[in-house]
Automatic annotation (TrEMBL):
It comes from Noviherbaspirillum cavernae. This is GDP-L-fucose synthase. It catalyses: GDP-beta-L-fucose + NADP(+) = GDP-4-dehydro-alpha-D-rhamnose + NADPH + H(+). It is an enzyme of class 1 (oxidoreductase). One of its GO terms (biological process) is 'de novo' GDP-L-fucose biosynthetic process. One of its GO terms (molecular function) is GDP-L-fucose synthase activity. InterPro entries: Epimerase_deHydtase, GDP_fucose/colitose_synth, NAD(P)-bd_dom_sf. Pathway: Nucleotide-sugar biosynthesis; GDP-L-fucose biosynthesis via de novo pathway; GDP-L-fucose from GDP-alpha-D-mannose: step 2/2. Pfam families: Epimerase. Its EC number is 1.1.1.271. It comes from the Bacteria.
Length: 324
């Protein structure tokens, strides 16, 4: 493991759920020179701004956690925004990092890069072997492009740009918008409001049968830093030149119905659960094969029930802000 505590580290997307967790993790480990910039200070979709940012300071490492993200509804409704914003962010940050001499970069992707009907659990080798899930294909293509950007800069210029592909993330700092959020924050808010209003039922999109894997954002941050700190030889030995990404997850999944029941217990909801099968389910199952990451010395430590309780406490502490 290589821990350069004085390195100048730019965390792109530090105001987001994952980026803020990475900043917390780095600080807890003793890193002293963390560079951040709000969107008001730096719009990562603007090439000139990103170039000027890298030209104006010395950066040793980059964690590229910035992205436009959302759930099924948001991906279906705003496909152009999702593919454009994510392509621009990745291309601008990686190219400017390369031009300014940044040797180490970490790109954070998504499990949606894998084909809709990939064998379960999904291994890294499944990339580009089949058709993507239609509801988030534009976002997935942007994330695949990010992986290939890393591989291309490594191949052509000898950079050390790495990619980690997380499963479904949740935790403090998540987006609790009633329509544009992912399943855990959306359900936490819906169940919480049902308890507040004394509602007899909560309606959940889909049949409840799809299976999903969930990873707490603090575990994701720990995994990202762990992979970044691996020496080059160890990391390279675990990948191949054109297959450089690493899955990050728990290796454990549950049905959406089971998730909803867990969230009901967490929020104290005792009413009826109703599943609206007229709404899309998305992929039937998405479970990551995390054997490669385990072989590199890391595995998740936060169980789903504990993670849901932690996330709900954060929601309650920040309710006035996140429900706007």
């Amino acid at each position: 493991m290589i821990r350069e505590l004085d390195a100048s580290i730019f965390v792109a997307g530090d105001r987001g759920m994952v980026g803020s967790a990475i900043v917390r993790r780095l600080k807890n480990l003793g890193y002293r020179n963390i560079v951040t910039a709000s969107r008001g200070e730096l719009d990562l979709t603007r090439q000139a701004e990103v170039e000027a940012f890298f030209e104006s300071r010395v950066i040793d490492q980059v964690y590229l956690a910035a992205a436009k993200v959302g759930g099924i509804h948001a991906n279906n409704t705003y496909p152009a925004e999702f593919i454009h914003a994510n392509l621009m962010i990745e291309a601008n940050v990686m190219h400017s990092a390369h031009v300014s001499g940044v040797q180490k970069l970490m790109f954070l992707g998504s499990s949606c890069i894998y084909p809709k009907y990939a064998a379960q659990p999904m291994v890294e080798e499944a990339l580009l072997t089949g058709t993507l899930e239609a509801t988030n294909e534009p976002y997935a293509i942007a994330k695949i492009a990010g992986i290939k950007l890393c591989e291309s800069y490594n191949r052509q210029y000898g950079r050390d740009y790495r990619s980690v592909m997380p499963t479904n993330l949740y935790g403090q700092g998540d987006n609790f918008h009633p329509e544009n959020s992912h399943v855990i924050p959306a359900l936490l808010r819906r169940f919480h409001e049902a308890v507040e209003q004394g509602a007899p039922e909560v309606v959940i999109w889909g049949s409840g049968t799809p299976m999903r894997e969930f990873l707490h954002v603090n575990d994701m941050a720990a995994a990202s830093v762990h992979v970044m700190e691996l020496d080059h030889a160890t990391y390279a030995a675990s990948t191949r030149p054109m297959l450089s990404h690493i899955n990050v997850g728990t290796g454990i999944d549950c049905t959406i119905r089971e998730l909803a029941e867990s969230i009901a217990r967490t929020t104290g909801f005792t009413g009826r659960l109703t599943f609206d099968s007229s709404k899309p389910d998305g992929t039937a199952r998405k479970l990551m094969d995390v054997s490669r990451l385990k072989s590199l010395g890391w595995q998740a430590s936060i169980g789903l029930d504990d993670g849901l309780r932690d996330t709900y406490r954060w929601f309650l502490d920040n309710e006035g802000r996140v429900r706007d």
